[in-house]
Amino acid sequence: MATIETTRPSSASALANPRTRFFILHVLLLFVIGLVVGYAATFFAGSSAGNFDAKAINSGDTAWVIVSAALVMLMTPAVGFFYGGMVTRKNVVSVIKQSILILGIVSVQWVLFGYSLVFGKDMGGLIGDLSFFGLNGVGYAPNASYAGTIPQMAFMVFQAMFAIITPALIIGSFVERIRFRTLVLFVILWSTLVYDPIAHWVWGVGGWLRNLGALDFAGGTVVHISAGFAGLAAAIVVGKRKGYEQGGHLASNNVPFVLLGAALLWFGWFGFNAGSALAASPLAVNAFVVTNTAAAACALTWMVLSWAENRKPSAMATATGAVCGLVAITPASGFVGPIASIAIGVVAGLVTYLMLMLRSKKTRIDDTLDVWAAHGMGGVTGALLTGVFAEKAINSAGNNGLLFGNPGQLWTQVIAVAVTVVYAFVVTFILLKILTPLGLRVSAEEEEEGLDMAVHGEDGYRL
Q1: Which residues contact 438 (CB under 8 A, 6 or more apart)?
Q2: Which residue ranges run through the membrane (predicted)?
């Protein structure tokens, strides 16, 4: 009986394979990085603990801030589901993957130097120094300048989640066509050159907008205006999708995903806003209540408008309206009361809905998931209305607004909004132009195939 001999490829022939060599090179590179970083840890010995007075730590405040950080972390993959349900079925994996990618990139950037640039020692009102590089000195002791009853490390990780979700919001403006490697570089550069400076201006001790008296409790300017107008710049530079039609409707592949994403965002937003009180306090309760109320009012506003426009109350419109209400109440949540939050929700609902119609029907800009209308203009509306409805009686660290005898606060809000809009748009535009030679978008063939298979090799649905 004849036997058939099978030959196994030798190790030498396997190494001759370019793909194998490429893989081995990356294994070795990552191993070296791990060794170098591991050795560098000796230079930071004890910096994550440090000397501290245990009596200065309030366990309730610390628990609330840690839970709030976890809630805000949940919002980033929730953005992936919210956006992922809106795109075509051949791009759902790529959108969710991009949100997870950003969670990874910015987490590391924040620990290395992002936190220090925002909350380090002020340099001319423009940026923090690198005194907290690698979280050196960020340990168990509170930082009295920001939160005097919790470890500075808890404050750091809570703020990290804001830095993470902000670039994740931008991806909705260029879904279905962005090149993956370019996105990686863009996120690193944008977080460092756009988010970190704006966050320092508004929240950092010594930041010039903070010194001016601008009010932004949880990120209306820092997060939403910056992301919204960065998204507008990105949509212009990256260009339209193949087959884009002005005024056309989204070919949403999974409406339940959209509703799930919106519900998770609503849930996580309590950590976003109420957590920004940085204590389990009455102010946190107020922020929680007005956050829920504004979201509800805006959701109902969008539902009514979609009903009036299309003769059917859209589920996606209702969910999107809730998110727009959450955006608008964010800067005001620590300064306004429940009735004012209803007004903010209704006004923001009108503004964002009409801005979406304006962008879609009157321009050729393909801001695919309307990041500019929802986050940019929602954030602008909320920041300006903070200057109208703010009450010092609610937050003694804030100020009164126009309706409570201080019209100057509205003017301060106008300045903060204008500066954030211009800086975020212009720097994002320049960054993307610089990255253009690397290729901003995938090839026409890859776009036609869909990024799920063309870029990631993973299909979202196997029907």
Answers
A1: 179, 181, 182, 185
A2: 21-44, 64-88, 100-120, 153-175, 182-203, 215-238, 250-272, 284-308, 315-333, 339-358, 370-390, 410-432
In a domain, residue 3? The reply is no
Element (H, E) at 96: helix 92-109
Q: How far apart are CA 266 and CA 221, in angstroms?
A: 19
Q: Mean pLDDT check: name the lowest of 24-28, 64-68, 154-158, 222-226.
A: 24-28
Tokens read off for 332? 């005001």
Distance CA 15, CA 123 (A): 52
Angle between helices 255-274 and 282-310 (to 10 degrees): 150
Query: Of how many residues is the chain composed?
Result: 463
Question: Could you tell me the residue range of the domain that residue 136 belongs to?
Answer: 54-454
CATH number at residue 232: 1.10.3430.10
Q: Which residues contact 18 (CB under 8 A, 6 or more apart)?
A: none
Domain assignment present for 165: yes
CB atoms within 10 A of CB 313: 15
Secondary structure (DSSP) of 10-61: PHHHHHHSHHHHHHHHHHHHHHHHHHHHHHHGGGGTTTTT----GGG--HHH
Q: pTM of this prediction?
A: 0.93
User: Confidence band (pLDDT; 50, 70, 90) for 38?
Assistant: confident
How many distinct structural domains can be found in the chain?
1
Token couple for 292: 């829920």
Please report how the helices 315-329 and 255-274 are oriented relative to each other, as an axis angle in degrees rounded to 10: 20
54 CB-near residues (< 8 Å, 6+ apart): none
pLDDT in tens, 365-418: 999 999 999 999 999 999 999 999 999 999 999 999 999 999 999 999 999 999
